[in-house]
Design a protein that fits this description.
The structure is a homodimer.
Chain A (H helix, E strand, L loop, with lengths): L9 E2 L8 E8 L3 H12 L4 E4 L16 E2 L5 H5 L6 H11 L6 H9 L1 H10 L8 E2 L12 E2 L19 E2 L13 H15 L3 E3 L2 E9 L2 E9 L2 E13 L8 H7 L17 H7 L5 E2 L4 E5 L3 H6 L1 E3 L13 H11 L5 E5 H9 L13 E3 L2 H8 L5 H13 L21 E5 L4 E5 L2 E2 L6 E3 L5 E7 L16 H18 L8
Parallel strand pairs in A: 1-9, 2-3, 2-11, 3-8, 5-6, 11-21
Antiparallel strand pairs in A: 4-7, 6-7, 9-10, 10-11, 12-19, 13-18, 14-15, 15-17, 16-17, 20-21
Helix pairs in contact in A: 1-6, 1-14, 3-4
Chain lengths: ~500, ~500
Amino acid sequence: MTDTANCRPVDAAEVGHWDLEADVVVAGFGVAGAAAAVEAARSGADVLVLERTGGWGGAASQAGGFVYLGGGTALQRALGFDDTPANMEKFLLAALGPGADRAKIADYAENSVAHYDWLVGCGVRFREAFWDQPGWEPPHDEGLMYSGGENAAPFNAIATPAPRGHVPQMANKQTGAKGGGYMLMKPLTDTAAALGVRAEYDIRIRRLVVDDGRVVGVLATRFGAPVAVRARRGVVLATGSFAYNTTMVENFAPLLVGRPGAAIEEHDGTAIRMAQALGADLSHMDATEVAFFGDPQLLARGILVNGRGQRFVPEDTYPGRIGQMTLLHNENQAYLIIDEQALEAASATETATPFFRVPPTWAAESIAELEADMGLPELALQTTVQTYNHHAKTGTDPLFGKKPEWLEPIGTPVAGFDLRGRTAGFTLGGLRTDLDSRVLHVNGEPIAGLFAAGRCTAGLCAGGYVSGASLGDGSFFGRRAGAAAAHADTDEGQ
Amino acid sequence: MTDTANCRPVDAAEVGHWDLEADVVVAGFGVAGAAAAVEAARSGADVLVLERTGGWGGAASQAGGFVYLGGGTALQRALGFDDTPANMEKFLLAALGPGADRAKIADYAENSVAHYDWLVGCGVRFREAFWDQPGWEPPHDEGLMYSGGENAAPFNAIATPAPRGHVPQMANKQTGAKGGGYMLMKPLTDTAAALGVRAEYDIRIRRLVVDDGRVVGVLATRFGAPVAVRARRGVVLATGSFAYNTTMVENFAPLLVGRPGAAIEEHDGTAIRMAQALGADLSHMDATEVAFFGDPQLLARGILVNGRGQRFVPEDTYPGRIGQMTLLHNENQAYLIIDEQALEAASATETATPFFRVPPTWAAESIAELEADMGLPELALQTTVQTYNHHAKTGTDPLFGKKPEWLEPIGTPVAGFDLRGRTAGFTLGGLRTDLDSRVLHVNGEPIAGLFAAGRCTAGLCAGGYVSGASLGDGSFFGRRAGAAAAHADTDEGQ
């Protein structure tokens, strides 16, 4: 665990000498930090990025690269999908709650098309190809995919389904050379560099420096040696989630203890602690993204049951939703039941996700036999399959709304996959910020000179999640943070 | 909503004049505040309680009065129940997690017998009578009852069941004169008064006063006029939960929006905000107690199903657990299915909880008919009942572990009760404190001069709850707060 002990703010009067200085100081060179740096520089500010590791990228560069965008982006339109900001907003309100920040969602939906154009303007490329299969990510370099269950129940009855997972074109996904996350971060950081943004690496921020209630810099360390950094206009915190801070995870999101995923070890909550020490407010600290390590092609063709043999989710939905339902509501218990025919069909398709494939745990000639082999109570699984098959025959799933294309009665022979505990995730809660990414004090007012974006903040998501929401709100509100910091009125104190 | 805008700490140098002064200043005269006041006074401190309303009592005096105690209290022993601190700890760890504070639970279990004796020593009376029925509270003035599902699955297989819901003897429950909560608060506040504790009413605390990092007082208002109160040794925050602060509930526990329960309107999170403004840490802000408004006598005799006709809880468990499972994990959807014979048996017993009784929503001659009347998908309810009955015949419930005494196949005619949305609750998260009730800064160190207890803190509970945990940890850690504040070393600054 990282030492977060000394996170109290320091009075500027105690800082004898500034080692580094800029108008806007950005902590963290992941997607939020890069977007903030670009926008601050374009707003005329002299920008310095402090990055804890030896290079730019953060968790973003290791991610699949989904950016959740919609409302009618150029890519959506080119591929024949209708979408509007209102439709996107309706979906996000349903999928990201309860408790999701309505103002942020409305803002994000309204300005999503422009944000797509901004990314393209920074050199991010999206190939005009749609991947129409269930899965975590497109297998090749397709630019668009459903990434949040928009086309699955219950959301397909709430808003018109539109794919919004925008994936930067990969350099060479087949050889594994560079993924979508890298292809997002490379042009963003190149853009920042071209704008004169300076970056200093191996620097860990530790404490905020405050002058009469206004944040005017940070104290950091570089290989243990102190570095005082002055921010003439503002500090932008963009250092990621707290998924790797065990104490914080225990205190706020205990179901995630022992299973951090899609985060990097530097995600230790440092920035959250530093801002809290100044009275910053928090939001949705229990919220978590949850990945589910199962092949969506298999899931859609079978049924998922919990430890009592009960179904609990439409199996053809966004796998992150399956992950949340499994970990948060079904004691991390999930079993896949699929018949031989469907298993073969899933295996034969080139749309499978091979790295999530495991051999069946059980194989049986009847559901009763499988139920017994799995150690489930008598009739528990049999009655679940009976009800499912009764409706699947007519192409309906009144319990969960799985789409007709995936509905087929479960026959025999039949296999069972033990998928218990196959979840991992990262935290979604963090600092409470406004639409200009100003960090809010518990009194509701912005803390002068302090801005934040990315997963050290509570962004669009509360209870739910969609893939691309973090790179999405990180870059979107990162830009806001950069612009707001560059324009910050330095006369405005506490 | 209460104005929490001006919650920033104030420097002592800015306070020109102290209107009131004491060694230990306690904010809030509910159970935590009263216990803190008594213990601080017994430790030799001059104590002043600031209470926002016109009288002592808080939410505690309106509660049923359960204090969760065990490990072999005099009352447990007198009534023939074996219990040990280790057994109590084992149960609490299973029932109050995940993420529950292990150190607090161990401490609480270890010192629970002594805490019972302390309450009795303060004049709280517990009648030596055990109420053995499922329910929310004893119907008369019985002193002991199961209040957390100790004798139900899954906990009865984890720890030896022992009743730990200790109820102060009611003055006259039959006439509704005075309930258990009042009979807890009356002797505690009488004890405080006898010890010379002063109390000032109609005073709302607003801001903490700080001198070189140490809390030395509070700024308050009385009917709008400012009141500065000096605390020579320490301030104890004991102003209750944030169940009535809509913004906080939306940001931290959104499933509770619109359904505060067993809280009072003064529970607006004021103390939490004031301490946060000083860098205090939080814990388990999403955790909620959830009451379920259904008669446990009916529930135990029927089955509860969610909106898809699936069972989701052992129906004979603590109703607060049913509430949590309903609201937090089953979209607040619950239907009770019970046959005529069981309904009559439940109604005939004097153990029923009449005020939770509603007439059946549906009555039918068969499960199939009831299923259709309820609008459930075909076979959804029929298969659930089929599985339940198959095992109930043999006196087992392998899915949820309902006890044999409540297991009877569901026959016909059969009734359905629509119990959707019949939940309400209060928040369990709050300030992070140590075993001496010192409020912890985000850097992990105690904030000098600041103590807290009761529901403005995260106490024993995280994900789970047991009735009596709040009056229990409120009084237990309230005492710790009072003692620690009285002994606080005033030389110890930041």
